[in-house]
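Weekly structure sync - notes
Attendees: PM, LS, DV (DV joined late)
Agenda: review two folding runs queued last week.

Item 1: First target. Sequence and structure tokens pasted below for the record.
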Amino acid sequence: MKTKEAFGIIGNIEYRSPWVRVLYWCMFILMIVLAAVCILPPVWIMVSSLKDIKEFYAIPPTLIPRSFNVGKLWETWQEFNFFSYYLNTAYLAVGSVLFCLTFNGLAGYFFSKLKPRGSALLFALIVWTMMVPNTVGMVPLFKNLIDFPLLHLNLTNTYWPMWFMAAVNPVVILIFKNFFDTIPLALLEAAKIDGASTIGIFIRIILPLSGPVMATITILTMNSVWQDFFWPFMVLKDKSTWSVIVAIYNLKATLPQDIQFIALTFAILPPIILFVFFQKYIMNGQSMGGSIKE
């Protein structure tokens, strides 16, 4: 077992074969190159944001900065009021997480434990929407936001459209359903005998057992909201409502290139911090998503 873990997908016996060994190292080098391609752009942005102006525009560019102008980061933070954009994004993320956990969790409970007649067809239709690109429905959704049906409300420049989008996520519903399937029915039947209602079972029995999956979905949702650009860009037109990513895009015409790199560093740092401290839950979420796609 230890040998297999050491060699990854191949075992010690396979590794002794010369052509397998060559193939293994070729794949290993390819993975390093692909990882470098993914990592280098954000690293280059963060390193460049620390350089002073003279070094930033120097040709050829320096790979390792000779100057560290940390004060420029603070000046940019204050001058362009990035704290307000952070607050907007945090408000957006917290609301999205609440909507995501509440409505998708209830949907997962409905399909896993209640299963009324016809729910299988409904669940298949929801899962089918995973195959449809999100951008397909953006334009009709946006038209509805300008004049919300029946209520005739204009929901642009509010966070409700992003929260609504988080409330119905087929992947999260599937994750919740798969997790709830592992909870024994005997536990729920015992609660029924004790007089618990359907929603009472969900709150008192299901939710306390769902800590790991809820933590994973919370982190993935927050990361997704932080990086989301297209939908917030369509909806949030007022400067007071901009998220960090939308603010950087809208301000880029007025920002010098070195300040743009600093702004991008501000946008990159929170997901990195989130990954460092919660990588266990993020990996669990990715494995859940991978098992679903299979």
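Item 2: Second target, run right after the first with the same settings.
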Amino acid sequence: MRILVCISHVPDTTSKITFNSDHTEFNQSGVQFIINPYDEIALARAVELTEGTDGSITVINVGDASTEPTIRKALAVGATDAVRIDAAPRDAWFVAKQIAHYASEQSFDLILTGRESIDYNGSQVAALVGELLNIPSVSIVKKFDIQDREITIEREIEGGKEVLSTQLPVVLGTAEGVAEPKIPNMRGIMSARTKSLQVVPAVDVPVLSSISKYESPAPRGQVAMVDEVEQLVNLLHTKAKVL
């Protein structure tokens, strides 16, 4: 089985997010970047599926050279090889077009992404790649198993879960429950240095959107600590005015 895992290079969740002076660009100075946590889940499941088989895992990232440490970590976790599309990601449409163009020239049985990236939380790439390749795509996947060429998928829906099946190839946006993220061991870290990391040029994609301005969320208000239920009810009635 040939698996393509799409990984995003995102700020660590503990990073302090700031913007440039006119709030039109994200300020990357001093920010630590990591593999998108949902993509780590996808990669871990791919490793499980290929362990002890002749299957392979290719990781793909759309980004400039600064993303290569993140890609090398994915190789250390267990990916076979890697591809970097040499371009700064503009939006989900741009990223999906790059991934779909590369995948269309290969023969992948399974394409995995995270359910969303933790920086923009768009949840669009998996569905866009599926549409561009004209193959099924399923989002917010909580569990899946493959028997021969048939895949059974459990996905999260409003108020419950949905179980469905389809044939490979398919694109899945994976969520918690699919697998536990793996920590690379020393052997993996050493072998990652010699694994193939191919850099390919981006294809032209029409610009459909642009960032006008970033805004930080409003500061949180003060927290009031209460000891009595009656006091809480009174505050909700007189101050918050939600009762």
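Discussion on item 2: The first helix runs from residue 37 to 50.
Action: LS to circulate a short write-up before next sync.
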